Amino acid sequence: MSVPRVRLAADGPELSRIVAGAWRLADRDLGAAGRRRWVETCLDLGITAFDHADIYGGSAVEELFGEVLGAAPGLRDRMRIVTKCGIRPVDPGRPAHTVKSYDTSRAHITASVDASLRALRCGHIDVLLLHRPDALMDPDEVAATFRDLRDAGKARHFGVSNHAPSQFAPLHRRLPLVTNQVELSPLHLDALGDGTLDQCLDLGLRPMAWSPLGGGRLFDARDAPAARVRAVLEALGAERGVSAATMAFAWVLRHPAGVLPVTGTMRAEGLRDAVGALEVTLSAEEWYRVWEASTGHEVP
Q1: Mutual orientation of helices 31-45 and 61-71 as an angle, nearest 10°?
Q2: Strand 49-51 relative to strand 155-161: parallel, antiparallel, unpaired?
Q3: How many contiguous H segments (helices) and E segments (strands) does the chain have?
Q4: Which residues are catalytic?
Q5: pLDDT for 82-112, tens place per residue?
Q6: How many angstroms separate the CA atoms of 6 and 72, rounded?
Q7: CB under 8 Å to 40, separation ≥6 — which residues?
Q8: How far are the Cα atoms of 13, 137, 264 from residue 115, in angstroms, in the given order?
Q9: CA 126, CA 113: separation in Å to the nearest integer?
Q10: Angle, in degrees to the nearest 10, between helices 61-71 and 106-120
């Protein structure tokens, strides 16, 4: 099957329902050929959205991805690029950063976007996200900066990542955002109860979910909650002839907010597990069986 594209918001971009997370692109010795093969495999499966951040892989991932686009520039027309900015890490390559901090100033956002465009070797970013909430953010300044980036053709749409509803709202009132990328998996349920997904539903925005497999925790044999969840997912998957990983993606996809899971796998099999979830629909009772296994108790 081919992965369908969905619109993030009424005036937002169309992204593939499954998003390829590039954050591990620098972790393995894939080589230039392996990285290009991963990109092409994603595209062949219909995964056309690629998720980045300026700090991923010690700030190397965007450049490695850009090498793929430099060697095969025609691939850019087949994809949508999401990237993030706003974190200033302590890093040997950034001696001016003396403490890890957040920076959503006009100067930092603009410089980050320019650096990402150079690294990615592309003319524009499809969706730019603020990576983490900044306690010192001036929403008027950020909104004005976003408008200037849009007018300059450098970024077309904007959103945030890891923002609570109260942090999302001030910026959204000044400039419409198209998504909030948050952690969500059968082992991380916070977004279900803190109002984040409720807000997206209310505003008609599709959230994105990072670590839908719990960052690999789902398959940790030493983790008791993970073992409980995995047992339920394996049982549900056996009934359908699919893997526990596919069932975990299906659990995330089941939420009415229309979540876009971000898969971080570099393996073709892992990508197919994610895509296969689009053909699985959980009943409400099955979904709550997974929730119960995660929390260790039934619903109140």
Answers
A1: 80
A2: unpaired
A3: 12, 12
A4: 56
A5: 999 999 998 776 777 789 999 999 999 999 9
A6: 26
A7: 75
A8: 23, 21, 23
A9: 12
A10: 40
Q: pTM for this structure? A: 0.97
Helix (H) or strand (E) holding 209: strand 208-210
Contacts of 154 (CB under 8 A, 6+ apart): 113, 114, 117, 124, 125
- CA dist 267 and 270 (Å) reads 5
- Token pair belonging to 157: 């749409």
Cα 37 → chain centroid: 21
Task: State how far the alpha carbon of 271 is from the alpha carbons of 18, 23, 39, 40, 280, in Å.
Answer: 9, 15, 11, 12, 15
pLDDT 10s digits, 221-236: 899 999 999 999 999 9
Q: What is the 3-state secondary structure (H, E, C) of 116-135?
A: HHHHHCCCCEEEEEECCCCC
Pick left, alpha or beta for residue 59 (phi over 0 → left; psi -120 to 50 → alpha; otherwise beta).
left
Side chain identity at residue 167, one-letter code: Q
Q: Residue 297: which region, alpha, beta or left (left: phi > 0; alpha: psi -120 to 50)? A: beta
Q: Which two tokens stand for residue 112?
A: 């980050």
